[in-house]
Amino acid sequence: MKRFFQRLRNHSKLAYFSFWFLVFFYIVSFFADILAPYHFDYQFRNKPYQPPTKIHFIDESGHFHIRPFVYNMIIDDPVFRTYREDQSTRYPVKFIVNGPERKIFFVFKTSKYLFGVDEPAGIFLFGTDTYGRDIFSRLLYGGRISLSISIVGVLISFTLGMITGGIAGYFGGLIDQILMRFVEILMVFPSFYLMLSLRAMFPLNLSSIQVYFLIVLILSLIGWAGLARIIRGMVLSIKEEDYVLAAKSLGLSHWRILFFHIFPNTFSYTITALTISVPGYIIGEAALSLLGLGIQEPYPSWGNILSSTIGNLKVVGDAPWLLLAGVFIFAVLINFNLLGDALRNVLDPKNW
Amino acid sequence: MKTFILKRLLQLIPMLIGMSFISFMIIQSSPGDYFAQMKMNPEISPETIEMMKINFGLDKPVLVQYLLWLKNMCRMDFGISFAYHIPVTTLIKFRLKNTLCLAIFSLFLSWVIAVPLAVLAGYKEGTNIDRMLSIFAYLSISLPSFFVALLFVYFISKTGVLPLGGTRSIFDVNASAFLIFKDYMKHLLVPGLVLCFVNIGWLFRLMKNNFVEVFNTPYILAAWARGLPASSIIFKHTLRNALNPMFTILGMEIGSILNGAALTEIICGWPGMGSLILEAVLSHDLYLVMGALVISGFLLIIGNLIGDILLTIFDPRIRLT
Amino acid sequence: MEEILRCEKISKNFMIKDPLGISKRKLTAINNISLSINQGVNTGIVGESGSGKTTLAKTLTLLVRPDSGLIYYRGNEITKLPDRKLRFFRNRVRIIFQNPYKSLNPRSTVERVIKEAMLTETKTSETVDDILSHVGLPPEYKDKYPHQLSGGERQRVAIARALVGNPECIIADEPTGSLDAMTEIYILTLLDELKKRFGLTYVFISHNLKIIAEFCERIMVMYRGHIVEQGSVEQILKNPLHPYTRLLWNPESEKFVRQQQKYNYGCPFLHRCIFRMEKCFHQSPELKDKENGHLVSCFLYE
User: Fold this and answer.
1) From the CB of residue C185, how many other CB atoms can be counted at a distance below 10 Å?
2) Which of A60, C2, C96, C282 measures 20 to 30 Å from C156, CA to CA?
């Protein structure tokens, strides 16, 4: 493991950074309950589409304050939604604040958050949406959903692909023919169309948990076929290697050969394949939610934060900070791509 | 050559049957009666519904239904759309034309841009130009199509230089054909550019890798040693060989373009297959969903076939006996 | 003399596909080979690369199933037995591969390699250390991975793996083929010691006649998947009959080669034979006993 990080860093500093960036992103979204100043459905009804709150160090009389502060924003013109700062009271930014109780992943209770300001002012780092909900908080919570879907989905596809690809490649013959024909047929469909059609199999109004698992299911159902084919190809070539034949000549069982000799030697490729395929799941979730077929309000996901901008030119024009969800998606994708490219080189046994 | 195409066409048949069967199963396992929605609609009389049930063979067992549907499909009859009350085929025909126009336009544009840039980057490998282009390629690969589309929409809503949504804004019957064409192209430009942008990145990367690989082979070195002019080496010797693997890519791209196009179409309001299937899913218009699914899969198969055929034509190493 | 392994008329073809999977070509790796291996008689198989030696070794150990023909182990036919019923055979007949860089799983330590070989063998009371000491490796080597070992050390591990559970026959497929000259001598000495110590019978495959002559009592000469000559060491060394064997003995005579074009009919050696006759174009000669156990397949001696 240590050797691996060493090699990754030697190969590409950028990819090494990408790796830690992604770890950071996942941790941050996992602890959204502590880090986010507001709960994802906490609404400031009098502050729709408020632009990002400015954080001040110097007040109107020119005094410098060590502790940053914000002003309350007051809506100036309800039609054009212009805001102005009410500079009469300063609201200092407080760290480790108490608030209503939240549950981290439905288990651990917490009533302390990292930062916040006293009401009626609000600290909206990335502005608010149409209901006056804090976009920053929603992005953190949304990241938890979008990122966890991608990981769970990838793991399910990986398991399915490993089993089918392994069996097809190792045993060959009729099983191989049947499995691979099935996989080919699945791959014939353009994935977006297949995704929508699979979604059509289920009612549109499902509970949030159901939708979450449905998305995972659909995405992994689409994703496993490609992985199975890659793994089959690898198994097909590895099973002719001398060390596999040697294991066979010892009279070891098929399962032992498959699990101890073949699969471990596919890992360097499959880890790369997994890294490269994660973006597909993130895009898939975002696309479904974007179209209103995925995660439903009030639950946030990066896709459905973006969805309020579709077909609504005025909103995009007035509140461009809603597009930040796209920036988050982009940031995660580019880091996955960078990491995947580096892994491809680092994990390739030819380069050892 | 003929036998090869014939063989590949024969291979398509089990593929198509499997594909249509999966599509059919998807529709079969959908919840509720197909006609539940129609029954709610007071405009449709119960007699019409009864008649449709018999036409679609819905009172028969599942397998018979499938065969009936397969038979109808061979005659390009995918049934009737519940939402639009017109045959699915008619609907798809109109939308497919738009999607294909969009796909061909963006495909053409992205190839015309990506291939010369890749040759440039490959020839000047390691220089700043190469690095800049590679960064651009990374951006293009990592930006999801829907986000690019949203950014374009945002930009256009701010400037208003191009029309958005639909295929035309001139509805004058007397307008000249050229004017209508110009109008159509103007509408095509936004989704076309979005798709082109998303597509360029990986095309550039693949092409550059091919180019560099061929460029470093001994026979190119030998060509330099013989004192051939650089242009002849780059274009005649390297490019020709580097382009060969791209023909397979061209075939595969039809699938990826269809995928990317769907979301772009929806966001940019281009009435193509993507927006059609979305509408169909939202309104539970099952025959329409199935029709769109089968047609899109069919397009993908044809795309791969075209790629293979082009490859056999251009790559002398693959000889067909 | 007890017979361990016998095969009758085994053949193996491989199908080679072109990249697009349009046309297929048949490649015959071994063709109609019959041989028997008796206890205590070390058999050498000689032939140039591509003559099907490795395929023969893999077929004899049933890692590759023959397309036709039968294989017997101690009188029992085992050709079509499923792998799980082959344990009794696998434990008694072992194989050593040519390239120790490929024959050890890069993700297994030496200890795991040996332990795994013990899995199927319940009778043995030996420990990993004992087995390593048989091949002259110190016990510290247990925790090493293949990439930390030299070629010779790897081959020792591979031999150790084959030794677990006291097999009676070891098929060694060019065990020194990818080692340097010094290591080759060490490994050969080791193999020789083990033979005496455990009473092993070797099937020794090599392209090097000197090694074969030193190690074996019987020699078979292979050419393009056929056995062209077979006999005891003295017979073959002193009196080589087949033109190909003579060529192997005296490579300079290669300059008398007639033609490089390969024929797909007649005698397999046709295109290189300086003695070829009209008959050779039409028929393939059969392996016939010339004198007490010296077999040759050539029309010159009929």
Assistant:
1) 12
2) C2
